[in-house]
Amino acid sequence: MGALTIALLVSGGVGAHADELDDRKIEVEQNLDHLNEDMEVLDDDIKETDSKLRGLQAQLPAAEQALADAQGRVSRAADEAADLARRVQVARETRDQLNVKIAEGKVKLEDSKQIIGQIATEAYKRGGVSSDLSLLLNASADGNLAAGMDLADQAMRSQNAALDSLSEQSATDANAKLRLAAVEEEITDLKSAADAALVREQVARDDAEEKKQSLDGIISQTDALSAELLAQRPRIQEKLRVKEAEQVQINGQIKERQERLIREEAERKAKAAAAERKRIAEEKAKWEREEAARAKEAREEAARQKKKNSYVKPKYVAPAPQAAPQERSSWGLIRPVSGGRQTSGFGWRPTPAGTIDYGGRGGYVHAGVDWGFGGQCGSPVKASADGEVWMAGWGGSSGNKVTVSHGVVKGKALATNYHHMQRVVVNVGQHVKQGQVVGYVGTTGNSTGCHMHFETIINGAAVNPLGLL
After folding, report:
1. According to the model, what pLDDT value does residue 415 have?
2. Could you tell me which residues are beta bridge partners of residue 423?
């Protein structure tokens, strides 16, 4: 009893989060896991299209993750290139500041040299610093020696200060030039690294673009395949209508026979009760006849003995009715297959988001339980309980099928159905024992994988087999 879903693309945004990708992966795996029931009403061409679609869907999480990874590499490469560009800019600003300092130092150096040169020139003109200070220091006309000495001291301090400034500036300029050389080398290294980072960024962008084109291609193909499947919706709906009508007819036939079983069981019980009442009545009449004979004999004996008849007629006690067979406390069914993995349960299931709702009802009812065998057919299928074979042979969309009636259990008519078998090994009317092989797991009818579809029918209605096993 197939599901009516064909998985469509549930496309996520570029760079989807990991949890979204995990959810997508789980959804795809669930769609593939329910392959048996999902495909039972579809034609071969639609099955092929759907198979391609599911294959593309299975690629989506990996493709999206690859794109997200590639974009992550682009982001990291861009950050690296931007950081290196910033460091190059900082190094260039440092170089420019050092050049300004060196230029300023050069001016200061020239000023110091000029001062020293003036002092040296003046000393040269005056024949050097000598004991005749008034000549060098241009002493006042009155020839004040103290003032002359003060001026000489000031001149010496100026000369020494100029020399110190010259030495300090020379050292500063030398250090600035060394730093400038190191900065220039750093700029060269950073520029080389920045160029390499830009190359890596471009490679990462090209890779991301390739991944995006791949993902876009998958999405485009998925959209096209989904459109093909949607176009087949009217045809599938007609098949569903026929299939449902067929199922209603089959279940109706089972229900009619089960109702007849219930009536026959009720008639049997009524006849048994009537027979029991008749038996009791006959036994009572017999007892009364026998008792009358005994009473007559007693009276005759009393007359012969000329004694008063003291006979007391005993009260009639009806015999206890025969005990009815004890009803079983459970349905007594066993699992029809050994091994296998349950791939589908019983009951209504809504159409998953992003899938085609062929029936247009928002979901569908799976009328039994499926056990899958991983593509391997041939496992034996066993009768779940003693019973009579009502149907054995081709069952249309159900493939090779067997229906076994288990009579009336707990006051209700019980039957079991076994669908899609590779072959059937029992005949209509045959009585089977619990555990007896009725056929072998197959994939006949509307089925795309080796599996056993098992149903339990009570009073003509399908119920959850897991509640009876």
Report:
1. 94
2. 440
Q: Report the sign of the C-alpha dihedral through residues 211, 216, 217, 218, in that order.
A: positive
Find the distance separating the first CA and the last CA of the chain, reported in whole Å: 20
Q: Which helix (H) or strand (E) holds 121?
A: helix 44-125
Please give the structure tokens belonging to residue 51: 């198979």
pLDDT (0 to 100) of residue 435: 94
Q: Establish how many alpha carbons lie within 13 A of residue 409's alpha carbon, considering only the half-sphere containing its beta carbon.
A: 19
For 305-343, how does the pLDDT look when each residue is reduced to its tens digit (9 = 90+)?
Answer: 765 545 455 555 555 555 444 333 378 899 999 988 888
- Count of structural domains within the chain: 2
Helix (H) or strand (E) holding 461: strand 461-463
| 413 within some domain | yes
Amino acid at 307: K
Domain that holds residue 276: 236-289+332-467
- What span, in angstroms and rounded, lies between the C-alpha atoms of 343 and 353? 20
Look-up of token digits 């060098």: 136
Give the model's confidence band at 297: pLDDT under 50 very low, under 70 low, under 90 confident, else very high: confident
> Which of 185, 180, 304, 235 shows the shortest CA–CA distance to 46?
235
φ, ψ for residue 291, nearest 5 deg: -70, -40
Residue 182: exposure state from Cβ atoms within 10 A (0-12, 13-18, ≥19): middle
| Cβ proximity of 390 and 414 under 8 Å | no
Judge if 272 and 160 occupy the same domain: no
More confident residue, 350 or 453: 453
Percent of the chain beyond pLDDT 90? 16
Query: CA–CA separation, 196 vs 267, rounded Å?
Result: 96
Please check whether residue 303 lies inside any domain of the structure: no
